[in-house]
Amino acid sequence: MMPVALDLDGVVWLADEPIAGSAEAIGQLRARGEEVVFVTNNSYFTRQEVAAKLAGHGICAENAVLTSAMAAARLVQPDETVLVVAGPGVVEALVERGANVVRDGDADAVVVGFHPDFDYEGMRVASRAVRGGARLIATNDDPTYPTPEGPIPGGGAIVASISTASGVAPVVAGKPYEPMVALVRERLGNQGWVIGDRPDTDGRFAQALGFRFGLVLSGVTAPADLPVVPSPDLIAGDLAELTRQLCD
Predict the structure, then answer these.
(1) pLDDT at 1
(2) What is the pLDDT of residue 213?
């Protein structure tokens, strides 16, 4: 076994509903001495909120949460002015970086992430700043976000609207792109597993890291979608089943 970079949405939970057996599977991996870190493209929540949610599911995540907001913050410099079109997690990461966070006006950069209250005014403000010269940074470009009722529009859908309105393509920070690759490689080294529910995100992320890829079918990807590219090293219905395969 090797260290594990574990996705959350569609792997550990769907929105607020736990996926059966996930907490026990993580405990089993840790009992074998493997390091498990939680790597999420969902930039809305702060690290403490993600860790608290994991704790509520019976999973200790102290100092083990890596978010696309953290990766995006690396793309701005301290003292730059950053217009935020995103949730509290992005604000937290940018403040820790030393950036000046604003919600309107001119800026050096615009950082966009998933937030359910996004509206036309937010698109107008962000696209205006980008047309004025601000760099456009996306925490991720996932088109959808898994929920128990099915996929809903994700951060990628929000940034696509701003990119279309401004005529500028974003630099993307989260999985499978280089800023998140660097963040995880610093933590886990050059060998490990990425376990997730999206081949286009988690699978490509594993490729970029040089890690092996475990695909679970409890989130965005369904059995009817198989085969997928990139091809996983392991496929299972959920994290519990995948962990049994890893530990055999």
Answers:
(1) 64
(2) 98
DSSP 76: S
Burial (CB count within 10 angstroms: exposed 0-12, middle 13-18, buried 19+), residue 117: exposed
87: left (phi over 0), alpha (psi -120 to 50) or beta: beta
Domain contains 199: yes
* Residue-range definition of the domain harbouring residue 33: 4-41+175-247
Q: What is the mean pLDDT of the chain?
A: 96
The beta-strand segments (E) located in the chain are 4-6, 13-14, 17-18, 36-40, 65-67, 81-85, 100-102, 109-112, 135-138, 144-145, 152-153, 171-172, 193-196, 212-216, 234-236
pLDDT tens, residue by residue, 50-91: 999 999 999 999 999 999 999 999 999 999 999 999 999 999
Q: What CATH number does residue 231 fall under?
A: 3.40.50.1000
37 and 64 Cβ atoms separated by less than 8 Å: yes
- On whether both 183 and 224 belong to a single domain, the answer is yes
Domains contained in the chain, number: 2
Q: pLDDT tens digit string along 234-243?
A: 999 999 999 9
Separation of alpha carbons 45 and 88, rounded Å:
6
DSSP 8-class letter at 9: B
Domain boundary residue among 147, 172, 197? 172
* Residue numbers of the chain with a pLDDT score lower than 50: none
State CA 192 to chain mean position distance. 18
Among all residues, which ones are annotated catalytic?
7, 9
Provide the 3-class DSSP secondary structure of residue 122.
helix
- Name residue, tokens 């099915």: 150
